[in-house]
Design a protein that fits this description.
Layout lengths: L6 E3 L2 E4 L11 E2 L2 H8 L10 H6 L1 H11 L4 E4 L6 E4 L2 H9 L5 E2 L4 H7 L8 H14 L2 H23 L22 E3 L2 H18 L7 H19 L9 H23 L7 H6 L17 H31 L2 H15 L6 H5 L2 H13 L6 E5 L3 E3 L2 E3 L4 E4 L1 H5 L42 H18 E5 L6 E3 L3 E3 L5 E5 L13
Parallel strand pairs: 5-11
Antiparallel strand pairs: 1-2, 3-4, 4-5, 6-8, 7-15, 8-11, 9-10, 12-15, 13-14
The protein binds protoporphyrin IX containing FE.
Keywords: Heme, Iron, Metal-binding, Monooxygenase, Oxidoreductase
Pfam families: p450
Organism: Streptomyces aurantiacus JA 4570
């Protein structure tokens, strides 16, 4: 699904806004809606369902514009579904001091991932979350920076080599016809995905040897597409046998790959080591905690592998695409890199001294947040923004639409990393920008993602000039917001000079 994805900088639209369909705007949830919502009633099924499937970004943006301070009710069939566009209301939902909201629609994910930090609630989630926080903490992030640099350098050698660029790792990626030595990366998202998956495997599981990165990526894509298709189907629609079969097969392959990985784990100070070590804490009822079964270890590892690489890869792909179309920002970032680390790989402390590089990533996450919408449901009747909601009401908080609001971010569709260098965003409410979610279920991997992105972008810009290829990119809106399949990028090796002066290609 693509559709509306307005983006412009220097007056050049990345995607010409096709504009939302003329369907009517989501109603403001006023008292009438509150009553209908309370009764659990909906209008005639499907009012916004088709638009939500076809043009979700346009619909969410319109809701944010027209219902900035209120909830917008979507006509999606039986049951209440509301868009939350007021950052203060998002704060209430995500911070959730009263434990009124939970993560809905986890059943399909549980079939793939079992019970873990992503899919659980309650004490099981809390235990899992503690492990997650440990493995994404500062000590591990320092080590991750070294691993990411190592993996990136291996990958980039193929960019600079004999044409072996791209998802396949095959030596058949097209050389640019115009620029000697340059290479077209056939799918920048897949390229980044291969890179971040290899890095996360080495970091969390000790190795990516004998792991079929491409097959894992393919099966994960199938699982995500099936879940998206199944969950955006009209209520009561029977899933097709073909989708069910594809889902079951891909889910089985993902689990089998991780079970093999865990079985051959050599031991070490990583996630698998942490999960397979004898438990050192008492369980919630005071008895000695039981060791995890191989299936439970698999659940946790799989959840971290998926959460740990997919969003980071997507954010990196967007960052590179945005940079490829802004020569001035790219030149300034390269100069910053040259001044700070010269030609070597950065560590977390170096990255803290590169504000423009960080601003590029922050701005890419503002314009193109991989988690473009965060969903919650009410566990019991409650009130939000003056609207009484029944138990089971679905709430959509969209980083995409809120972060593109002109109220908080002037020229909202433009790529302007400099806005993060001054205090331009200082007056915005806390949840005007929330690409990593918020509250108790906020992303534990935020620091890891930022360091990974900093290292990859640094190494790419130290070695290559990146150029756009073809039409401006469009977005593929599924479970995550990614560049459409086949979005290309050109990498032109820079001359082997000292970093910071490597401006020109041969
Ligand atoms: C740019 C990269 C990333 C983005 C944009 C991102 C975004 C998010 C968001 C928005 C959530 C909250 C979802 C919700 O509330 O429903 C989340 C949760 C999570 N993320 Fe990330 N993430 C990124 C990278 C990572 C990395 C590197 C890890 C590494 C392990 C990770 C692990 C997790 C986990 C385990 C959760 C579930 C937390 C919980 O439910 O308690 N993420 N992420």
């Amino acid at each position: 699904m693509s559709g509306e994805f307005p983006m412009s900088w220097k007056a050049v639209p990345l995607v010409s806004p096709s504009g939302p369909s003329p369907a009517r705007c989501p109603a403001h949830a006023g008292q009438d809606d509150a009553e209908r919502a309370e009764a659990g009633e909906g209008p005639a099924p499907g009012g916004h369902l088709e638009e939500l499937r076809r043009e979700p970004l346009g619909l969410l943006r319109r809701s944010a514009k027209e219902s900035a301070h209120r909830l917008a009710r979507l006509d999606t069939g039986p049951g209440a579904c509301l868009v939350v566009s007021d950052p203060d209301a998002v704060d209430v939902v995500l911070t959730d001091h009263d434990a009124a909201f939970f993560k809905p629609k986890m059943e399909r994910w549980k079939q793939v991932l079992g019970e873990n930090v992503l899919t659980s609630e309650g004490p099981a989630w809390a235990r899992s979350r503690r492990r997650s926080m440990r493995i994404t903490g500062a000590r591990y992030v320092r080590r991750a920076a070294r691993v990411v640099a190592e993996v990136t350098d291996e990958r980039l050698r193929s960019w600079a080599g004999t044409g072996a660029v791209g998802v396949d790792g095959a030596a058949d990626s097209p050389r640019s016809p115009c620029i000697p030595g340059s290479h077209d990366i056939p799918d920048i998202h897949e390229e980044m995905r291969t890179l971040t998956l290899a890095a996360v495997l080495r970091h969390l599981c000790g190795t990516d040897d004998d792991f079929d990165l491409r097959a894992f990526g393919r099966h994960l894509r199938t699982v995500m597409e099936c879940i998206h298709a199944l969950e955006s189907a009209p209520a009561g629609a029977e899933p097709s046998a073909r989708v069910e079969r594809a889902f079951a097969h891909a889910a089985g392959e993902l689990r089998a790959a991780v079970l093999r990985l865990v079985a051959s784990h050599a031991g070490g100070d990583d996630l698998v080591g942490l999960l397979t070590a004898p438990p050192d804490t008492a369980s919630d009822d005071g008895r000695a905690a039981e060791p995890l079964t191989p299936d439970q270890v698999c659940d946790e590892v799989l959840a971290h592998l998926i959460a740990g690489h997919e969003s980071t890869a997507t954010a990196l792909a967007w960052s590179l695409l945005l940079l490829s179309r802004d020569a001035d920002v790219t030149r300034r970032v390269r100069t910053e890199i040259g001044t700070t680390v010269g030609g070597r790989a950065p560590g977390p402390a170096d990255l803290a001294g590169m504000p423009l590089l960080q601003a590029v990533f922050t701005e890419a996450l503002r314009l193109c947040p991989p988690a473009w919408t965060i969903m919650r449901a009410t566990g019991r009747p409650c009130e939000l923004s003056g609207v009484r909601l029944p138990a089971g009401a679905v709430l959509l908080a969209s980083p995409y639409s809120i972060q593109r609001s002109g109220r908080w971010f002037p020229r909202p569709d433009e790529f302007l990393p400099d806005r993060w260098l001054g205090d331009a965003a200082a007056g915005a409410p806390r949840y005007a920008y929330f690409p990593f979610g918020g509250g108790r279920r906020s992303c534990p991997g935020r620091m890891l993602a930022q360091v990974t992105a900093g290292v990859v972008l640094t190494r790419v810009l130290q070695g290559f000039r990146i150029e756009p290829v073809g039409e401006p990119p469009t977005a593929d809106v599924g479970i995550i917001l990614r560049p459409s399949p086949g979005t290309r990028l050109r990498a032109v090796p820079l001359r082997r000079e000292s970093a910071g002066q490597r401006e020109e290609s041969p």
